[in-house]
Amino acid sequence: ALRDVSLEQLEAHRDELSDVVLRRCRFIIQEDQRVLDLAGALETGDGDGVRRLMAASYAGARDLYEISAPAMEAMIDAMTSAPGVIGARQAGAGFGGCMVAIVAREATPDFAAAVAARYRAHTGIDAVIYPVNASDGAGLSAM
What we know:
Blueprint: H1 7-12, H2 19-44, H3 47-63, H4 70-80, E1 85-91, E2 98-103, H5 108-123
Antiparallel strand pairs: 1-2
């Protein structure tokens, strides 16, 4: 699996891959490391690290995996310039899909209003924003 391949190993075999496949593989390998780094940044409260890693994730998906669209560019611009944002990126498969942002709890209403207004101004589209709270995720429970 690509999660077991280092960037050095990928580069050693670059001549065996098309440019497109090389870029896609590079993104996946780098993204795997970003996920691990993001977990650490979240655990330690490193907001600058979260911001940097989420921005790098978005840029990698756009530039290496080539999954972006003008509407997504407008949304990332709206989210990263809104009050209270800690970090933002796309989620899912891209191509105009879902975006996610980590926002300071107290800034959520102002963030949502600013994103909706800026996105509408740039695209003419009304954004649908779902504020949620992080949870521990799925787990086993006894009945």
